[in-house]
Design a protein that fits this description.
rod-shaped; five-stranded mixed β-sheet; Alpha-Beta Plaits; Beta-Lactamase; 485 residues
Length: 485
């Protein structure tokens, strides 16, 4: 619009001036000169608002107007013609130069705009890279903190909960996180920890289910606890798994009765928890939307699972070490040192709470004979079998230990002497009736026992042990296979 009006004005001015000059009136010289000069003004406008060709066209037309005017008056207006020719030539040259400069400026402007666009794209790319690096730094800082936290934990429950919570938080955009551990005896998966997005996610489990307090839809509690086809695939393959859409993945039969509802899951990532080539479990994230996870999320979950596997393995080794430190390797019962520590604790508790307990000392009758006749391996078999029968007939809170070679000590918590005697007799009778096969020969095993009661027979450990030991030797003297107090 800004260039259209001057162009229109130039055309109107040229038309009016030419029309007035060519009119058959006898204009005054001054007016005629003014009209002729207006043609020069038109040419000046044309150089600004038209191209170089426009200058030539207006110049030629103006010259023709002057020529016609001169022929009509029988005289040639030399001054306006010279002025017109000079103006046209100069303005044409200027227009050409201006056009070249304008083209050069346009090229430079286009190049500048192109460079600006390139720089804008590079700047946006750099911004996205910076943001991605910042996110990675935050994640790896979080992973470093997780590693330090896990390394300081010694309780398995704490480790499992922390790994599940952190996997759910670090990867994000998940509706559930599941952690399975491998049952060594049955060689199957057992669900150990869950982290759900909220109480509204899955409500179809049996009411009162303790394992999944918030529920998880689509499967029964037992089926969920052992894992579905995806979990068992990772368990067998020992490889990470990414499923973009559970309904379209050709590797799995979605019509399988166990996986029919798929817990409402559309996409998932799952990685094995492996340490020293040993599969400890599986860590898995679920989402109700398809294509929620990619390679980055799988790589990050794999890192979390690696840290978790190390922590779980260390915790299991620590617990095993703790167990070995207080239990006898042959019988699985407590060792004497730990048993005596618990003995002192029970005495302190009995004094503080004014409660009673009994100490039962058991010895296998003629144990040396089994070793002499059948060998030491047979003696080990007898010790293990007797230990199992003693543990079977004691309460969960009672403390059973291998006190010496073939001697066993039992703290019968919250038991009076007559109650302890009843427990001891049941143990003796079951051992007497038990089947002991040594060198393919059925062999009879007998025990003798002595009982001391707190506080009736003593209020210190040494006194109670002495009383029980005296009762045990009396049982031996009176013919063995009996309980004395």
């Amino acid at each position: 619009m800004k260039r259209l009006f001057p162009r229109f004005l130039a055309i109107i001015l040229f038309t009016v001036s030419g029309f007035l000059i060519l009119r058959p009136f006898d204009w005054s010289v001054s007016l005629t000169s003014s009209l002729l000069l207006s043609l020069n003004f038109v040419i000046i406008l044309s150089v600004v608002y038209f191209s170089a060709q426009g200058v030539i066209i207006f110049g030629i037309l103006s010259f023709l107007v002057i020529l016609v005017h001169s022929l009509r008056r029988a005289e040639f207006a030399i001054s306006p013609a010279i002025l017109l020719a000079a103006t046209t030539a100069l303005l044409y040259a200027y227009s050409l130069r201006f056009s070249r400069l304008s083209q050069g400026l346009n090229v430079e402007l286009e190049d500048s705009e192109e460079e600006e666009n390139i720089l804008t794209v590079e700047l946006e790319h750099s911004r996205l890279e910076h943001l991605a690096l910042k996110q990675k730094l935050q994640r790896y800082t979080t992973l470093k903190g997780l590693s330090e936290t896990l390394s300081s934990m010694s309780a398995l429950d704490e480790v499992l909960s922390r790994v599940t919570d952190e996997a759910f938080r670090i990867i994000g955009k998940s509706n559930a996180c599941l952690l399975y551990l491998v049952d060594k005896e049955k060689q199957e998966l057992r669900l150990s920890r869950t982290k759900l997005s909220g109480p509204d996610y899955g409500v179809k489990l049996k009411k009162g289910d303790i394992l999944l307090r918030q529920g998880y839809g689509g499967l029964s509690s037992e089926a969920l606890a052992k894992g579905d086809i995806f979990d068992n695939w990772v368990f067998k393959q020992r490889s990470p798994l990414v499923v973009e859409d559970t309904g379209k993945d050709f590797r799995f039969n979605i019509q399988d009765s166990v996986a029919r509802d798929l817990r409402g899951v559309r996409s998932l990532i799952s990685v094995p928890l492996v340490q020293e080539n040993k599969l400890l479990g599986i860590l898995r994230l679920d989402n109700v939307s398809a294509k929620a996870y990619g390679a980055d999320e799988l790589r990050l979950l794999d890192i979390v699972s690696g840290l978790g596997a190390v922590a779980i393995q260390n915790t299991l080794l620590y617990q095993e070490t703790q167990k070995l430190a207080i239990t006898d390797g042959l019988t699985g019962l407590f060792v004497r040192r730990y048993f005596l520590e618990r003995f002192d604790q029970e005495i302190s508790r009995g004094i503080w709470a004014n409660s009673q307990f009994a100490f039962l000392m058991i010895d296998i009758d003629g144990f040396k004979g089994y070793n002499d006749r059948y060998g030491h391996i047979a003696g080990d078999i007898v010790l293990r079998k007797v230990s199992q029968l003693i543990s079977k007939h004691t309460a969960p809170g009672d403390i059973v230990a291998r006190y010496g070679g073939e001697e066993f000590g039992i703290l019968l918590v919250n038991s009076k002497k007559h109650q302890a005697r009843g427990v001891a007799e049941r143990i003796r009778e079951n051992i007497e009736k038990g089947q002991f096969i040594l060198r393919r020969e059925p062999t009879a095993v007998r025990i003798s026992g002595g009982i001391a009661s707190f506080p009736e027979d003593g209020k210190d450990r040494e006194g109670l042990i002495q009383k029980a030991d005296q009762a045990l030797y009396r049982a031996k003297r009176e013919g063995k296979n009996r309980i004395c107090s």
